[in-house]
Amino acid sequence: MNRFLSNATNKIDAKGRVSVPAPFRNVLTRLDIQELYAIQDFVYPAITVGGPDLLDRYERQIDGGDPFSVDSNDMSLLIHGGGVFMKLDGEGRLMVSDFIRDYTGITDQVTFVGRNDHFQLWDPVCYEEKRQEALGRRMGGGRPGADQGETG
């Protein structure tokens, strides 16, 4: 499988590292992703992590617009100024930096959430709250708005 699926919660060790779940490491290996790109999610309090193709996708979006527009400049500010490169250590762990903690509220555990071609880092309590909200909307607890789509 070449997709990030499912979720798992792991503890952060005393040195501030967390083990990436084995299924996620397997996908990284299969896709030969050596360096990870991480950015703050624009919808959720989560960090989005993927390979170079994730950064390429954002850059194509920026390049498709007017380079002098506010929108293109905002995107570049967020994508280039707000993104960081990360690497797994030899044991398959990521450093949970202030960049991650400050945006997500993560303290002692990280929930890894598969999102197809990338994964996200979440505070476990926040992830469960947002997951329940999304499930409620999909199960009829709330009709999707115009910005949420109408698929189902």
UniProtKB/TrEMBL annotation:
<dbReference type="InterPro" id="IPR035642">
    <property type="entry name" value="MraZ_N"/>
</dbReference>
<dbReference type="GO" id="GO:0005737">
    <property type="term" value="C:cytoplasm"/>
</dbReference>
<dbReference type="Pfam" id="PF02381">
    <property type="entry name" value="MraZ"/>
</dbReference>
<keyword id="KW-0805">Transcription regulation</keyword>
<dbReference type="GO" id="GO:2000143">
    <property type="term" value="P:negative regulation of DNA-templated transcription initiation"/>
</dbReference>
<comment type="similarity">
    <text>Belongs to the MraZ family.</text>
</comment>
<dbReference type="InterPro" id="IPR035644">
    <property type="entry name" value="MraZ_C"/>
</dbReference>
<dbReference type="InterPro" id="IPR037914">
    <property type="entry name" value="SpoVT-AbrB_sf"/>
</dbReference>
<feature type="domain" description="SpoVT-AbrB">
    <location>
        <begin position="83"/>
        <end position="126"/>
    </location>
</feature>
<feature type="domain" description="SpoVT-AbrB">
    <location>
        <begin position="7"/>
        <end position="54"/>
    </location>
</feature>
<dbReference type="InterPro" id="IPR020603">
    <property type="entry name" value="MraZ_dom"/>
</dbReference>
<dbReference type="InterPro" id="IPR007159">
    <property type="entry name" value="SpoVT-AbrB_dom"/>
</dbReference>
<dbReference type="InterPro" id="IPR038619">
    <property type="entry name" value="MraZ_sf"/>
</dbReference>
<keyword id="KW-0677">Repeat</keyword>
<dbReference type="GO" id="GO:0000976">
    <property type="term" value="F:transcription cis-regulatory region binding"/>
</dbReference>
<keyword id="KW-0238">DNA-binding</keyword>
<comment type="subunit">
    <text>Forms oligomers.</text>
</comment>
<dbReference type="GO" id="GO:0009295">
    <property type="term" value="C:nucleoid"/>
</dbReference>
<dbReference type="GO" id="GO:0003700">
    <property type="term" value="F:DNA-binding transcription factor activity"/>
</dbReference>
<protein>
    <recommendedName>
        <fullName>Transcriptional regulator MraZ</fullName>
    </recommendedName>
</protein>
<keyword id="KW-0804">Transcription</keyword>
<dbReference type="InterPro" id="IPR003444">
    <property type="entry name" value="MraZ"/>
</dbReference>
<keyword id="KW-0963">Cytoplasm</keyword>
